Amino acid sequence: MADTNQQSPPPQPGPMQFLMSNKLETAMWLSRLFTVYCSVMFILPILGPYAAANFYQRALLANALTSALRLHQRLPRFQLSRAFLAQALQEDSCHYLLYSLILFCCQLLTFYHLSLQSVGPSSLMFIRNLLDKLTSNQQNILKFIACNEIFLMPATVFMLFSGQGSLLLPFIYYRFLTLRYTSRRNPYCRTLFTELRILLEHFIMKPACPAFFRRMCLSSIAFISRLAPTGV
Fold first, then answer.
1. How many C-beta atoms lie closer than 10 Å to residue 31's C-beta?
2. Looking at the domain assignment, is residue 146 inside a domain?
3. Residue 98 belongs to what domain range?
4. For 135, which DSSP code?
5. Going along 35-167, which residue ranges are E strands?
6. Is the distance from CB of 48 to CB of 71 less than 8 angstroms?
7. Integer Cα distance of 219 and 226 in angstroms
8. Cα-flanking dihedrals φ and ψ of residue 105, to 5°?
9. Same domain, yes or no, for 223 and 147?
10. Considering the entire predicted model, what is its pTM?
11. In 3-state terms, what secondary structure has residue 75?
């Protein structure tokens, strides 16, 4: 006779119980998925240009929500103090939150950036498999994102002169870029700035480079170097 006192295995929690027990992770997963969906609907304007513009705004808001939830995970309990604000500004999630809020009212095509940063390793299975295949190119992908962040700075200036941006946008985005430059978790912005400077200096030092173009590039390098944060 079987032992009637043998304990039965504990019941496995259902999908809804698992989601409810991990509310924060579930909310971030859904917001990331919604960001990717809105980005695709903007890139492929199946419903027309007006709907695509709405999907643009929704993608930025969804990305801001994801970043805010991630920032809530990393930071301790909220305190109205300068130390808490300084700690928040050092987190990449805070940078992405500011990124989304800055570009919320601006028509910049930044969805490839939003899609790359919104897809996390805990997303759908096929996304995880794709990320596993791209592990060998992870450094190049992060440099590509940093390149996007850098070249959006002159884009904000061009938008200002073309009448598509506000006067404060270049200054606000410059502050965002300095935060990315001083990031503790992501050094690729600093690395790419250095690589771009070395590449440009190597190009302008060739004998075939015109003298006026060389002087202009050296002046630009010196100006950008003065704008770089110190003590990094």
1. 21
2. yes
3. 16-107
4. G
5. none
6. no
7. 11
8. -105, 10
9. yes
10. 0.53
11. coil
Per-residue model confidence as pLDDT tens digits over 154-206: 888 888 887 776 777 788 888 888 888 887 777 888 888 888 899 998 888 88
Amino acid occupying residue 125? M
Task: Tell me the torsion sign for CA atoms 84, 113, 120, 132.
Answer: negative
pLDDT one-digit tens code per residue, 111-167 = 444 554 554 544 445 555 665 665 666 677 777 878 888 888 888 888 888 777 677
CA distance 115 to 33: 9
Neighbours of 162 (CB within 10 A): 8
Largest CA distance in the chain: 97
**Total of domains in the chain:** 2
Nearest to 64 by CA among 103, 90, 37: 103
Closest CA to 176 of 106, 83, 76, 73: 106
DSSP H/E element including 88: helix 82-89
Residue 101's pLDDT band (cuts 50, 70, 90): confident
Q: Are 92 and 37 in a shared domain?
A: yes
d(CA 48, CA 185): 39
The contacts found for 15-20 with CB under 8 angstroms, 24 or more apart, are none
